[in-house]
Please model this.
Amino acid sequence: MSDDIFAKAIARLDNAARHADIHPETVNRLRHPKQFLEVSIPVRMDDGTQRVFTGFRCRHDDTRGPGKGGIRFHPNVSAAEVKALAFWMTCKCATVGIPMGGGKGGIIVDPHKLSKKELERLSRGYMRAVAHNVGPDVDVPAPDVYTNATIMAWMMDEYSTIVGKHSPAVITGKPVELGGSLGRGDATGRGGFYCLRELATRRNWNPADKTIAIQGFGNAGQHFAQLASQVGYKVTAISDSRGAIHDPAGLDIDQQIQTKTTTGRLANAGSTITNEALLELSVDILVPAALENVITESNAANIGASVVVELANGPTTAPADQILHNAGTLVIPDILANAGGVTVSYFEWAQNKSGYAWTLEEVHERLNTIMAREFNAVHDLMDTINTDMRTACYAHALNRLAKAHEVKGTAAMFAS
Ligand code: NAD
Model:
Protein backbone atom coordinates (compact mmCIF):
# COMPACT_ATOMS: atom_id res chain seq x y z
CA MET A 1 0.00 0.00 0.00
CA SER A 2 1.36 3.41 -0.88
CA ASP A 3 1.64 6.32 1.53
CA ASP A 4 -1.30 8.18 0.03
CA ILE A 5 -3.64 5.35 0.96
CA PHE A 6 -5.18 7.34 3.81
CA ALA A 7 -5.81 10.27 1.43
CA LYS A 8 -7.47 7.86 -1.05
CA ALA A 9 -9.65 6.38 1.70
CA ILE A 10 -10.78 9.84 2.74
CA ALA A 11 -11.57 10.70 -0.91
CA ARG A 12 -14.19 7.93 -0.88
CA LEU A 13 -15.64 9.56 2.24
CA ASP A 14 -16.04 12.87 0.40
CA ASN A 15 -17.77 11.17 -2.53
CA ALA A 16 -20.23 9.29 -0.32
CA ALA A 17 -20.92 12.32 1.90
CA ARG A 18 -22.68 13.96 -1.07
CA HIS A 19 -25.33 11.22 -0.81
CA ALA A 20 -25.64 11.11 2.98
CA ASP A 21 -27.54 13.22 5.46
CA ILE A 22 -24.38 14.40 7.19
CA HIS A 23 -23.18 17.79 8.41
CA PRO A 24 -19.87 19.07 6.92
CA GLU A 25 -18.52 19.31 10.47
CA THR A 26 -18.98 15.58 10.92
CA VAL A 27 -17.24 14.82 7.62
CA ASN A 28 -14.40 17.03 8.74
CA ARG A 29 -14.22 15.22 12.10
CA LEU A 30 -13.89 11.87 10.30
CA ARG A 31 -10.95 13.19 8.29
CA HIS A 32 -8.88 13.19 11.48
CA PRO A 33 -8.25 9.97 13.44
CA LYS A 34 -9.16 10.48 17.09
CA GLN A 35 -5.89 9.00 18.28
CA PHE A 36 -2.75 7.77 16.58
CA LEU A 37 0.03 6.20 18.56
CA GLU A 38 3.53 5.25 17.40
CA VAL A 39 5.52 3.11 19.79
CA SER A 40 8.96 1.54 19.89
CA ILE A 41 9.19 -2.03 21.15
CA PRO A 42 12.60 -3.25 22.35
CA VAL A 43 12.93 -7.03 22.04
CA ARG A 44 15.74 -9.21 23.39
CA MET A 45 16.52 -11.56 20.50
CA ASP A 46 17.54 -15.20 20.96
CA ASP A 47 21.19 -14.35 20.19
CA GLY A 48 21.28 -11.89 23.11
CA THR A 49 21.14 -8.68 21.05
CA GLN A 50 18.37 -6.09 21.34
CA ARG A 51 16.24 -5.02 18.35
CA VAL A 52 13.80 -2.14 18.44
CA PHE A 53 10.60 -2.55 16.42
CA THR A 54 8.14 0.19 15.46
CA GLY A 55 4.44 -0.34 16.15
CA PHE A 56 1.27 1.66 15.64
CA ARG A 57 -2.27 1.78 17.00
CA CYS A 58 -4.93 4.05 15.61
CA ARG A 59 -8.40 4.68 17.06
CA HIS A 60 -10.07 6.46 14.19
CA ASP A 61 -13.51 7.10 15.70
CA ASP A 62 -15.21 5.78 18.83
CA THR A 63 -18.43 7.77 18.82
CA ARG A 64 -20.55 4.64 18.30
CA GLY A 65 -18.50 2.40 20.61
CA PRO A 66 -14.92 1.28 21.41
CA GLY A 67 -12.49 1.00 18.53
CA LYS A 68 -12.38 -2.37 16.72
CA GLY A 69 -9.77 -3.63 14.30
CA GLY A 70 -6.89 -5.99 13.76
CA ILE A 71 -3.16 -5.91 14.42
CA ARG A 72 -0.99 -6.59 11.39
CA PHE A 73 2.60 -7.91 11.53
CA HIS A 74 4.16 -7.06 8.15
CA PRO A 75 7.32 -5.39 6.80
CA ASN A 76 5.24 -2.88 4.80
CA VAL A 77 3.06 -1.64 7.68
CA SER A 78 3.02 2.17 7.68
CA ALA A 79 1.34 4.98 9.60
CA ALA A 80 -0.79 5.90 6.57
CA GLU A 81 -1.89 2.28 6.06
CA VAL A 82 -2.88 1.88 9.71
CA LYS A 83 -4.91 5.12 9.61
CA ALA A 84 -6.64 4.10 6.36
CA LEU A 85 -7.50 0.64 7.71
CA ALA A 86 -8.82 2.18 10.95
CA PHE A 87 -11.01 4.52 8.93
CA TRP A 88 -12.37 1.55 6.95
CA MET A 89 -13.17 -0.19 10.24
CA THR A 90 -15.17 2.84 11.39
CA CYS A 91 -17.19 2.58 8.16
CA LYS A 92 -17.48 -1.22 8.34
CA CYS A 93 -18.82 -1.24 11.91
CA ALA A 94 -21.28 1.53 11.05
CA THR A 95 -22.35 -0.31 7.86
CA VAL A 96 -23.50 -3.36 9.82
CA GLY A 97 -24.70 -1.29 12.77
CA ILE A 98 -22.60 -2.91 15.49
CA PRO A 99 -21.83 -0.61 18.45
CA MET A 100 -18.13 -0.24 17.80
CA GLY A 101 -15.86 2.27 16.11
CA GLY A 102 -12.76 1.93 13.97
CA GLY A 103 -9.31 0.86 15.09
CA LYS A 104 -6.23 -0.75 13.59
CA GLY A 105 -2.68 -1.56 14.62
CA GLY A 106 0.50 -3.01 13.29
CA ILE A 107 4.19 -3.67 13.71
CA ILE A 108 6.83 -3.24 11.01
CA VAL A 109 8.25 -6.76 11.06
CA ASP A 110 8.59 -9.91 8.99
CA PRO A 111 7.31 -12.41 11.59
CA HIS A 112 8.59 -15.36 9.53
CA LYS A 113 12.13 -14.25 10.41
CA LEU A 114 11.48 -14.46 14.18
CA SER A 115 11.62 -17.52 16.41
CA LYS A 116 8.48 -18.43 18.40
CA LYS A 117 10.06 -17.01 21.56
CA GLU A 118 10.97 -13.73 19.82
CA LEU A 119 7.42 -13.52 18.42
CA GLU A 120 5.96 -13.95 21.89
CA ARG A 121 8.28 -11.27 23.34
CA LEU A 122 7.36 -8.89 20.49
CA SER A 123 3.60 -9.52 20.92
CA ARG A 124 3.72 -8.97 24.67
CA GLY A 125 5.97 -5.90 24.18
CA TYR A 126 3.45 -4.42 21.76
CA MET A 127 0.63 -4.87 24.27
CA ARG A 128 2.74 -3.29 27.04
CA ALA A 129 3.38 -0.31 24.75
CA VAL A 130 -0.28 0.27 23.81
CA ALA A 131 -1.99 -1.06 26.98
CA HIS A 132 -3.12 2.39 28.14
CA ASN A 133 -4.70 3.12 24.76
CA VAL A 134 -6.67 -0.13 24.30
CA GLY A 135 -9.15 -1.94 26.53
CA PRO A 136 -12.63 -3.50 26.54
CA ASP A 137 -14.26 -0.04 26.67
CA VAL A 138 -11.57 1.80 24.71
CA ASP A 139 -10.28 -0.06 21.65
CA VAL A 140 -10.48 -3.81 21.01
CA PRO A 141 -7.82 -5.34 18.71
CA ALA A 142 -8.06 -8.61 16.75
CA PRO A 143 -5.94 -10.72 14.37
CA ASP A 144 -5.03 -9.44 10.91
CA VAL A 145 -2.30 -10.27 8.38
CA TYR A 146 0.26 -12.66 9.97
CA THR A 147 -1.24 -12.55 13.46
CA ASN A 148 -3.35 -15.37 14.91
CA ALA A 149 -5.25 -16.76 17.90
CA THR A 150 -2.07 -17.62 19.84
CA ILE A 151 -0.76 -14.05 19.47
CA MET A 152 -4.16 -12.76 20.67
CA ALA A 153 -3.86 -15.08 23.70
CA TRP A 154 -0.38 -13.69 24.57
CA MET A 155 -1.66 -10.12 24.24
CA MET A 156 -4.77 -10.80 26.35
CA ASP A 157 -2.59 -12.42 28.99
CA GLU A 158 -0.19 -9.43 29.04
CA TYR A 159 -3.05 -6.93 29.26
CA SER A 160 -4.69 -8.89 32.10
CA THR A 161 -1.39 -8.83 34.02
CA ILE A 162 -1.03 -5.06 33.53
CA VAL A 163 -4.56 -4.23 34.72
CA GLY A 164 -4.53 -6.92 37.40
CA LYS A 165 -7.68 -8.76 36.32
CA HIS A 166 -8.83 -11.34 33.81
CA SER A 167 -9.80 -9.24 30.77
CA PRO A 168 -10.81 -11.40 27.81
CA ALA A 169 -12.87 -8.58 26.24
CA VAL A 170 -9.71 -6.56 25.51
CA ILE A 171 -9.09 -8.52 22.30
CA THR A 172 -11.00 -10.83 19.96
CA GLY A 173 -9.96 -13.75 17.75
CA LYS A 174 -8.78 -15.64 20.85
CA PRO A 175 -8.73 -19.44 21.03
CA VAL A 176 -12.23 -20.68 22.00
CA GLU A 177 -10.72 -22.12 25.22
CA LEU A 178 -9.77 -18.57 26.29
CA GLY A 179 -13.06 -16.89 25.44
CA GLY A 180 -13.03 -16.92 21.64
CA SER A 181 -16.43 -17.23 19.97
CA LEU A 182 -17.78 -20.26 18.20
CA GLY A 183 -18.46 -19.42 14.54
CA ARG A 184 -15.60 -16.90 14.12
CA GLY A 185 -13.71 -19.28 11.79
CA ASP A 186 -16.16 -19.16 8.91
CA ALA A 187 -17.78 -15.78 9.72
CA THR A 188 -16.28 -13.78 6.85
CA GLY A 189 -17.16 -16.30 4.14
CA ARG A 190 -20.56 -16.88 5.75
CA GLY A 191 -21.36 -13.14 5.89
CA GLY A 192 -20.44 -12.80 2.20
CA PHE A 193 -22.59 -15.82 1.38
CA TYR A 194 -25.58 -14.29 3.22
CA CYS A 195 -25.16 -11.16 1.03
CA LEU A 196 -25.22 -13.33 -2.10
CA ARG A 197 -28.26 -15.22 -0.83
CA GLU A 198 -30.17 -11.96 -0.27
CA LEU A 199 -29.23 -10.73 -3.75
CA ALA A 200 -30.34 -14.05 -5.26
CA THR A 201 -33.73 -13.68 -3.56
CA ARG A 202 -34.12 -10.13 -4.90
CA ARG A 203 -33.18 -11.28 -8.41
CA ASN A 204 -35.13 -14.54 -8.33
CA TRP A 205 -32.04 -16.59 -9.13
CA ASN A 206 -31.84 -20.35 -9.19
CA PRO A 207 -28.37 -21.04 -7.72
CA ALA A 208 -27.96 -24.12 -9.92
CA ASP A 209 -27.93 -21.85 -13.00
CA LYS A 210 -25.12 -19.66 -11.67
CA THR A 211 -21.35 -20.05 -11.81
CA ILE A 212 -18.75 -18.64 -9.42
CA ALA A 213 -14.99 -17.97 -9.67
CA ILE A 214 -13.05 -17.36 -6.44
CA GLN A 215 -9.57 -15.82 -6.29
CA GLY A 216 -7.90 -16.96 -3.07
CA PHE A 217 -8.79 -20.27 -1.44
CA GLY A 218 -7.95 -19.44 2.17
CA ASN A 219 -10.20 -18.84 5.17
CA ALA A 220 -12.66 -16.46 3.49
CA GLY A 221 -12.66 -18.10 0.03
CA GLN A 222 -13.03 -21.70 1.23
CA HIS A 223 -15.97 -21.07 3.54
CA PHE A 224 -17.77 -18.97 0.95
CA ALA A 225 -17.20 -21.71 -1.67
CA GLN A 226 -18.49 -24.41 0.66
CA LEU A 227 -21.70 -22.58 1.61
CA ALA A 228 -22.40 -21.58 -2.00
CA SER A 229 -21.84 -25.06 -3.40
CA GLN A 230 -24.02 -26.57 -0.65
CA VAL A 231 -27.03 -24.63 -1.98
CA GLY A 232 -26.30 -25.55 -5.60
CA TYR A 233 -24.02 -22.83 -7.03
CA LYS A 234 -21.43 -24.19 -9.44
CA VAL A 235 -17.95 -23.05 -8.35
CA THR A 236 -16.02 -23.38 -11.61
CA ALA A 237 -12.70 -21.75 -10.68
CA ILE A 238 -10.60 -21.28 -7.55
CA SER A 239 -7.01 -20.20 -6.97
CA ASP A 240 -4.18 -19.78 -4.50
CA SER A 241 -0.83 -18.00 -4.76
CA ARG A 242 0.46 -20.75 -7.11
CA GLY A 243 -2.28 -20.29 -9.73
CA ALA A 244 -5.86 -21.20 -10.57
CA ILE A 245 -7.85 -24.23 -11.69
CA HIS A 246 -10.93 -24.04 -13.89
CA ASP A 247 -13.59 -26.64 -14.68
CA PRO A 248 -16.77 -25.36 -16.41
CA ALA A 249 -18.60 -28.45 -15.08
CA GLY A 250 -17.96 -27.31 -11.48
CA LEU A 251 -15.28 -28.23 -8.95
CA ASP A 252 -15.70 -30.61 -6.00
CA ILE A 253 -15.31 -28.04 -3.21
CA ASP A 254 -15.20 -30.49 -0.29
CA GLN A 255 -12.39 -32.37 -2.01
CA GLN A 256 -10.53 -29.14 -2.76
CA ILE A 257 -10.78 -27.99 0.87
CA GLN A 258 -9.56 -31.34 2.12
CA THR A 259 -6.58 -31.38 -0.27
CA LYS A 260 -5.68 -27.75 0.43
CA THR A 261 -5.86 -28.38 4.19
CA THR A 262 -3.75 -31.52 4.15
CA THR A 263 -1.20 -30.68 1.41
CA GLY A 264 -1.29 -26.88 1.18
CA ARG A 265 -2.11 -27.18 -2.53
CA LEU A 266 -5.22 -27.32 -4.71
CA ALA A 267 -6.15 -30.78 -6.02
CA ASN A 268 -5.63 -31.42 -9.75
CA ALA A 269 -8.92 -30.76 -11.54
CA GLY A 270 -10.01 -29.18 -14.83
CA SER A 271 -7.40 -26.99 -16.50
CA THR A 272 -4.74 -24.76 -15.00
CA ILE A 273 -5.04 -21.01 -15.63
CA THR A 274 -3.43 -17.89 -14.18
CA ASN A 275 -4.86 -15.79 -11.37
CA GLU A 276 -5.27 -12.94 -13.86
CA ALA A 277 -7.26 -15.17 -16.27
CA LEU A 278 -9.53 -16.31 -13.41
CA LEU A 279 -10.66 -12.72 -12.89
CA GLU A 280 -11.75 -12.44 -16.53
CA LEU A 281 -13.67 -15.74 -16.81
CA SER A 282 -17.24 -15.44 -18.06
CA VAL A 283 -18.88 -16.55 -14.82
CA ASP A 284 -21.90 -14.98 -13.11
CA ILE A 285 -20.20 -14.17 -9.80
CA LEU A 286 -16.58 -13.22 -9.17
CA VAL A 287 -15.23 -13.38 -5.62
CA PRO A 288 -11.85 -11.73 -4.98
CA ALA A 289 -10.79 -13.30 -1.67
CA ALA A 290 -7.04 -12.79 -1.58
CA LEU A 291 -5.30 -9.48 -2.22
CA GLU A 292 -6.02 -5.79 -2.62
CA ASN A 293 -5.92 -3.92 -5.96
CA VAL A 294 -6.48 -6.91 -8.27
CA ILE A 295 -9.32 -5.34 -10.30
CA THR A 296 -7.81 -2.22 -11.83
CA GLU A 297 -8.19 0.17 -14.72
CA SER A 298 -6.30 -2.28 -16.94
CA ASN A 299 -8.56 -5.34 -16.48
CA ALA A 300 -11.92 -3.95 -15.30
CA ALA A 301 -13.35 -3.82 -18.83
CA ASN A 302 -12.58 -7.55 -19.22
CA ILE A 303 -14.37 -8.72 -16.06
CA GLY A 304 -16.96 -11.22 -17.27
CA ALA A 305 -19.04 -11.52 -14.08
CA SER A 306 -22.15 -9.43 -13.52
CA VAL A 307 -21.72 -9.55 -9.72
CA VAL A 308 -18.50 -9.12 -7.71
CA VAL A 309 -18.50 -10.11 -4.03
CA GLU A 310 -15.49 -8.45 -2.38
CA LEU A 311 -14.38 -10.79 0.40
CA ALA A 312 -10.85 -9.34 0.25
CA ASN A 313 -10.24 -5.85 1.58
CA GLY A 314 -9.78 -3.29 -1.18
CA PRO A 315 -9.61 -5.59 -4.24
CA THR A 316 -11.07 -2.97 -6.63
CA THR A 317 -9.40 0.37 -7.35
CA ALA A 318 -11.52 3.54 -7.63
CA PRO A 319 -11.13 3.88 -11.46
CA ALA A 320 -12.03 0.19 -11.87
CA ASP A 321 -15.13 0.74 -9.73
CA GLN A 322 -16.34 3.32 -12.20
CA ILE A 323 -15.71 1.06 -15.21
CA LEU A 324 -17.61 -1.82 -13.58
CA HIS A 325 -20.50 0.43 -12.58
CA ASN A 326 -20.79 1.81 -16.12
CA ALA A 327 -20.83 -1.76 -17.46
CA GLY A 328 -23.72 -2.66 -15.15
CA THR A 329 -21.66 -4.93 -12.88
CA LEU A 330 -22.83 -4.94 -9.26
CA VAL A 331 -19.94 -4.81 -6.77
CA ILE A 332 -20.94 -5.83 -3.24
CA PRO A 333 -18.25 -3.79 -1.47
CA ASP A 334 -15.75 -5.12 1.05
CA ILE A 335 -17.07 -3.12 4.01
CA LEU A 336 -20.36 -5.00 3.63
CA ALA A 337 -19.40 -8.30 1.95
CA ASN A 338 -16.64 -9.19 4.42
CA ALA A 339 -18.22 -7.62 7.53
CA GLY A 340 -19.29 -11.03 8.86
CA GLY A 341 -15.84 -11.32 10.43
CA VAL A 342 -16.02 -8.15 12.49
CA THR A 343 -19.65 -8.89 13.36
CA VAL A 344 -18.72 -12.20 15.02
CA SER A 345 -15.73 -10.45 16.65
CA TYR A 346 -18.27 -8.08 18.17
CA PHE A 347 -20.23 -11.15 19.34
CA GLU A 348 -17.03 -12.43 21.00
CA TRP A 349 -16.56 -9.11 22.83
CA ALA A 350 -20.23 -9.05 23.87
CA GLN A 351 -20.03 -12.64 25.19
CA ASN A 352 -16.81 -11.85 27.12
CA LYS A 353 -18.35 -8.75 28.69
CA SER A 354 -21.52 -10.57 29.68
CA GLY A 355 -19.89 -13.84 30.77
CA TYR A 356 -22.12 -15.94 28.49
CA ALA A 357 -20.98 -18.33 25.75
CA TRP A 358 -23.39 -18.62 22.81
CA THR A 359 -24.02 -21.79 20.86
CA LEU A 360 -22.96 -22.02 17.22
CA GLU A 361 -26.63 -21.85 16.21
CA GLU A 362 -27.08 -18.59 18.14
CA VAL A 363 -24.02 -17.08 16.45
CA HIS A 364 -25.27 -18.09 12.97
CA GLU A 365 -28.77 -16.81 13.65
CA ARG A 366 -27.58 -13.42 14.91
CA LEU A 367 -25.10 -13.06 12.02
CA ASN A 368 -27.83 -13.95 9.56
CA THR A 369 -30.17 -11.31 11.00
CA ILE A 370 -27.55 -8.55 10.78
CA MET A 371 -26.18 -9.38 7.33
CA ALA A 372 -29.63 -9.79 5.74
CA ARG A 373 -30.93 -6.58 7.32
CA GLU A 374 -27.94 -4.45 6.36
CA PHE A 375 -27.50 -5.90 2.85
CA ASN A 376 -31.11 -5.05 2.03
CA ALA A 377 -30.87 -1.59 3.62
CA VAL A 378 -27.80 -0.77 1.50
CA HIS A 379 -29.45 -2.20 -1.64
CA ASP A 380 -32.59 -0.13 -1.03
CA LEU A 381 -30.50 3.01 -0.49
CA MET A 382 -28.56 2.29 -3.69
CA ASP A 383 -31.86 2.08 -5.60
CA THR A 384 -33.05 5.34 -4.02
CA ILE A 385 -29.94 7.46 -4.56
CA ASN A 386 -29.04 5.75 -7.85
CA THR A 387 -25.35 5.09 -7.24
CA ASP A 388 -23.03 2.11 -7.21
CA MET A 389 -23.33 -0.12 -4.15
CA ARG A 390 -20.03 1.02 -2.60
CA THR A 391 -21.15 4.66 -2.55
CA ALA A 392 -24.52 3.58 -1.10
CA CYS A 393 -22.73 1.54 1.54
CA TYR A 394 -20.55 4.45 2.64
CA ALA A 395 -23.60 6.74 2.61
CA HIS A 396 -25.46 4.18 4.77
CA ALA A 397 -22.51 4.11 7.21
CA LEU A 398 -22.19 7.89 7.20
CA ASN A 399 -25.88 8.32 7.97
CA ARG A 400 -25.37 6.22 11.11
CA LEU A 401 -22.15 8.02 12.06
CA ALA A 402 -23.81 11.40 11.44
CA LYS A 403 -26.68 10.58 13.81
CA ALA A 404 -24.26 9.56 16.56
CA HIS A 405 -22.07 12.64 16.12
CA GLU A 406 -24.79 15.18 15.51
CA VAL A 407 -27.10 14.30 18.38
CA LYS A 408 -24.49 16.13 20.50
CA GLY A 409 -24.96 19.27 18.40
CA THR A 410 -23.84 20.97 15.20
CA ALA A 411 -23.02 24.60 14.41
CA ALA A 412 -26.65 25.14 13.37
CA MET A 413 -27.99 23.91 16.73
CA PHE A 414 -25.64 26.07 18.79
CA ALA A 415 -26.36 29.15 16.66
CA SER A 416 -30.11 28.96 17.31
P1 NAD B 1 -5.84 -16.53 4.01
O1 NAD B 1 -4.40 -16.26 4.25
O2 NAD B 1 -6.53 -17.58 4.78
O3 NAD B 1 -6.06 -16.89 2.46
C1 NAD B 1 -5.56 -16.10 1.43
C2 NAD B 1 -5.58 -16.92 0.16
O4 NAD B 1 -5.12 -16.10 -0.92
C3 NAD B 1 -4.67 -18.14 0.18
O5 NAD B 1 -5.34 -19.20 -0.46
C4 NAD B 1 -3.48 -17.70 -0.66
O6 NAD B 1 -2.84 -18.78 -1.30
C5 NAD B 1 -4.17 -16.81 -1.66
N1 NAD B 1 -3.25 -15.91 -2.34
C6 NAD B 1 -2.15 -15.29 -1.85
N2 NAD B 1 -1.55 -14.60 -2.84
C7 NAD B 1 -2.31 -14.77 -3.94
C8 NAD B 1 -2.23 -14.30 -5.27
N3 NAD B 1 -1.21 -13.53 -5.67
N4 NAD B 1 -3.20 -14.66 -6.13
C9 NAD B 1 -4.22 -15.44 -5.72
N5 NAD B 1 -4.34 -15.92 -4.50
C10 NAD B 1 -3.40 -15.59 -3.61
O7 NAD B 1 -6.56 -15.11 4.16
P2 NAD B 1 -8.09 -14.82 4.46
O8 NAD B 1 -8.28 -14.69 5.92
O9 NAD B 1 -8.96 -15.75 3.68
O10 NAD B 1 -8.19 -13.34 3.87
C11 NAD B 1 -8.36 -13.13 2.47
C12 NAD B 1 -8.79 -11.71 2.24
O11 NAD B 1 -10.00 -11.47 2.97
C13 NAD B 1 -7.81 -10.62 2.72
O12 NAD B 1 -7.92 -9.50 1.87
C14 NAD B 1 -8.35 -10.26 4.08
O13 NAD B 1 -7.95 -8.94 4.46
C15 NAD B 1 -9.83 -10.35 3.81
N6 NAD B 1 -10.60 -10.50 5.05
C16 NAD B 1 -10.51 -11.62 5.80
C17 NAD B 1 -11.22 -11.71 6.96
C18 NAD B 1 -11.18 -12.94 7.81
O14 NAD B 1 -11.90 -12.98 8.82
N7 NAD B 1 -10.42 -13.97 7.45
C19 NAD B 1 -12.05 -10.64 7.38
C20 NAD B 1 -12.16 -9.52 6.56
C21 NAD B 1 -11.40 -9.46 5.40
Remarks:
- Residues 73 and 314 are 18 Å apart (CA to CA).
- The pocket of nicotinamide-adenine-dinucleotide is lined by residues 188, 215-221, 239-241, 275, 289-291, 311-313, 338, 341 (CB under 6 Å).
